[in-house]
Amino acid sequence: MALLSLPLPSSNCFSSSFSSWRQSSVAVNTALPIRLLPVAASATTTHQQQSIPIDKSSLNVAETASEDQLWAAACLRVRSFYDFQASSFGIQDHTRYLAEREFEALKERIAGKREGFKRVSCINATLPLSQFSNSADDLCTACKFTDNGEDRVVVGTLDLNQCLWLPEEIAGSKPQGFEAEFARAYLSNVCVARELHRNGLGYDIVTKSKKVAEEWGITDLYVHVAIENEPAKNLYMKSGFIHENDEPAWKARFLERPRRLLLWIGLPCSNEL
């Protein structure tokens, strides 16, 4: 199972995955009850931290190929979707617990062991560790992995899910009939390291996900986003998504979360179904 982000995200989290989430400003306490949900929806806050400029010539955006990189992606999601008080008791142990749960859930989904999902891929944006200064020590420590002897850092991540719907989210309507089981997909868990906002990384990983979806034969791609999440909506609309549906207000109240929009884009499929 994926996790539920307890507090409002500390960085711009553009997609609707990682887990469904509920706003809370409580301090970390391992005794707190935590709802565990399968996949989450889009949430974003405005973060005023100055963005670190990057050299995109060394940026790699690709499907995850190793467990080492999956672990780094899980750590970035916890770091992005949770906003714990630095002075909270046991914060390091609790953060690792959350990352371990997301890591195991991610491996399970990618391995095809989650009912209702035809295929899942984790797509990451990574940069060489050597590109970062001391101002990004926390990011580098949490989200570092090694690829062919080179230390790199996961700076953006999302999941591409081939399925009819995401748990606890409104479902898309395209395509209809038998094709829907194979040709519909959803983005989820979209987030970018807060230090690197405004570098276009969100757009880069969404663009890559569209290309992978086309290779899978996906014709209709969806994403959920919180109604008041203007940065996320701007990202998806820039990427070609348009509005299809709104989550009912009663459902959002029942799930104790902001209402979501369902956005859609049609893709030219590269393969025959």
Automatic annotation (TrEMBL):
It holds the Pfam family Acetyltransf_1. Coiled coil: none annotated. One of its GO terms (cellular component) is chloroplast. SUPFAM superfamilies: Acyl-CoA N-acyltransferases (Nat). GO terms for molecular function: acyltransferase activity, transferring groups other than amino-acyl groups. Residues 93-260 form the N-acetyltransferase domain. PANTHER family: GCN5-RELATED N-ACETYLTRANSFERASE 7, CHLOROPLASTIC, OS08G0260000 PROTEIN. This is N-acetyltransferase domain-containing protein. It comes from Corchorus capsularis (Jute). The lineage of its organism: Eukaryota, Viridiplantae, Streptophyta, Embryophyta, Tracheophyta.
